[in-house]
UniProtKB/TrEMBL annotation:
PANTHER family given in the database record: ATAXIN-3-RELATED
Hydrolase recorded as keyword: yes
Taxonomic source organism: Odobenus rosmarus divergens
Reaction it catalyzes: Thiol-dependent hydrolysis of ester, thioester, amide, peptide and isopeptide bonds formed by the C-terminal Gly of ubiquitin (a 76-residue protein attached to proteins as an intracellular targeting signal)
Cellular compartment(s): Nucleus
Single GO term (MF): cysteine-type deubiquitinase activity
Biased composition regions of type Polar residues, renumbered to the chain: 257-276, 315-324
Domain Josephin: 1-180
Gene this chain is encoded by: ATXN3
Lineage, broadest ranks: Eukaryota, Metazoa, Chordata, Craniata, Vertebrata
Protein name (database record): ubiquitinyl hydrolase 1
Keyword Coiled coil tagged: yes
Length: 360
């Protein structure tokens, strides 16, 4: 692609760009094309003068601007055609009845010149590949052989005038190089206006970013604030997760305790308060030991009746703080012994509930 000559659009000099891209070099300048246009204007004036310099047509012709060029840099098809005659080249209208009768496949041609609303551009074959050398593009656009006919048909449908360039084009480096290799194009070139718009938008975005950075005293301040915000959000999520786990654990414990409380409450009478008084606890403890003593005496008699040689399990009797078995529980028990007895009584009640449920 680098070897292909491609003039980009400047002002309204599309005719100059079209010719130079076709010939692959800086062959024509605005001054040279203006000279050709003035020469054509003089030839037309002389033909109009043949009808008389005093005629109305001649005076009208002199008052009209040139039809071959204007101050913007536009040049007519007559200027382009006369410029190509210098190189022995001729233009033939592509969609004319004369050319259509020849039934020539476009792929067998060498180049085309296209015009629409005073814009000129070249489509040329270099080596074995076709390229759109439109000066409005940022670079040459590769056109496949299968797409060439469709491309020209689309231009005709959009109102373009297409001319076939007949004759031998001057030799160029790109044509010689592309005879040996084929190029590939990953991305199509953009229009110059589109590229300029993107560059302008990038400059505007860059300016806005600089203003923001200045307002926030540099980019480091923005980075630090953003990092602090991310850390705060992460910590907040962790705390929420921990609170959810703790709430689930508390609910599980509460449900478990409620289940145990319902089992125990079936056998233990409820008091009027939420806590047992010391008097109530003492009475329950005495009732428990009074129930245990006959059982232990019965176990002792059973042990005496066991035949010799068999071991029986010794019965466990509650002890007081002094360690003397069989003493009155309510006389000299410490608070720790009282608590232990209460726990033992509660566990015994739970065991009885389990046995009752198993029998059911």
């Amino acid at each position: 692609m680098e070897s292909i000559f491609h003039e980009k659009q400047e002002g309204s000099l599309c005719a100059q760009h079209c010719l130079n891209n076709l010939l692959q070099g800086e062959y024509f300048s605005p001054v040279e094309l203006s000279s050709i246009a003035h020469q054509l204007d003089e030839e037309e004036r002389m033909r109009m003068a043949e009808g008389g310099v005093t005629s109305e047509d001649y005076r009208t012709f002199l008052q009209q601007p040139s039809g071959n060029m204007d101050d913007s840099g536009f040049f007519s098809i007559q200027v382009i055609s006369n410029a190509l005659k210098v190189w022995g080249l001729e233009l033939i209208l592509f969609n004319s009845p004369e050319y259509q009768r020849l039934r020539i496949d476009p792929i067998n041609e060498r180049s085309f010149i296209c015009n629409y609303k005073e814009h000129w551009f070249t489509v040329r074959k270099l080596g074995k590949q076709w390229f759109n050398l439109n000066s409005l593009l940022t670079g040459p656009e590769l056109i496949s052989d299968t797409y060439l006919a469709l491309f020209l048909a689309q231009l005709q449908q959009e109102g373009y005038s297409i001319f076939v360039v007949k004759g031998d084009l001057p030799d160029c480096e790109a044509d010689q190089l592309l005879q040996m290799i084929r190029v590939q194009q990953m991305h199509r070139p953009k229009l110059i206006g589109e590229e300029l718009a993107q560059l302008k938008e990038q400059r505007v975005q860059k300016t806005d970013l600089e203003r923001v950075l200045e307002a926030n005293d540099g980019s480091t301040v923005l980075d630090e604030d953003e990092e602090d915000l991310q850390r705060a959000l992460a910590l907040s999520r962790q705390e929420i997760d921990m609170e959810d786990e703790e709430a689930d654990l508390r609910r599980a414990i509460q449900l478990s305790m409620q289940g145990s409380s319902r089992s125990i409450s079936q056998d233990i009478p409820q008091t009027s308060g939420t806590h047992l008084t010391s008097e109530e606890l003492r009475k329950r403890r005495e009732a428990y030991f009074e129930k245990e003593q006959p059982k232990q005496q019965g176990d002792g008699r059973q042990q005496q009746q066991d035949p010799p040689g068999q071991l029986s399990q010794p019965s466990e009797r509650p002890t007081t703080s002094s360690g003397a078995p069989g003493s009155d529980p309510g006389d000299a028990m410490s608070e720790e012994d009282m608590l232990q007895a209460a726990v033992t009584m509660s566990l015994e009640t739970v065991r009885n509930n389990f046995k009752t449920d198993g029998k059911k």
